[in-house]
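User: Predict the structure for this protein chain, please.
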Amino acid sequence: MTSPSEPQQPGGFPPAPPAPSSAQPPRPPAPAAPPAPPYPVPSHPAPGYPAAGYHAAPPAPGYPGPGYSAVAPAVPPRGLLPWVLGFLIVIPFPFVGGIASGIAMAVSGGASRRAGGVARENARAALNWGLTYLLISTSLIVMHFVVLFLLTAESPATGFFPIGIPVTIYVAISLLHLVLVIIGTIWSSSGAVMRVPFAIPFLRA
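Assistant: Here is the predicted structure, written as structure tokens:
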């Protein structure tokens, strides 16, 4: 029989005993993991940034250092311009190209002498030959018109000679001038010294 103080379930049955608890006692916390070791210094640092404690060796002579572009050395003056201006002789006007070529070579040669070295020698040679060619060509042109005037004053000339002698010499000298200009341009561009031994030495070394 049940005690009058115990609660009664409907139907007069006593209360069921409490079910055992399924909760388990708390577990102790897991030990903390050891700290990760520091990252090692990479053996191949990023381009442009050396590794810590590493000093890059200086580059070998003749090779640029890392991260720097190679700079081409400046080309020293060579006295090329006075010889290139000699090609003005190909101007398709009678006698104009020769006179313009001689004047340009003389003026440019005088200005290029200030550079010194190879440029000074090539400019001096170009100036001397330019003045020589200018003097000869101008004299031949004047001689041609003088001969033409003297021989045709009384009667017209019937042949090319002797009136054409100054013109023939002028053409030969102009061809020689063109050959010398080509050679002088090649030699000057390669850094060699061009010399014209038969030019009048208006300007000495």
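Residues 116 and 126 are 14 Å apart (CA to CA).
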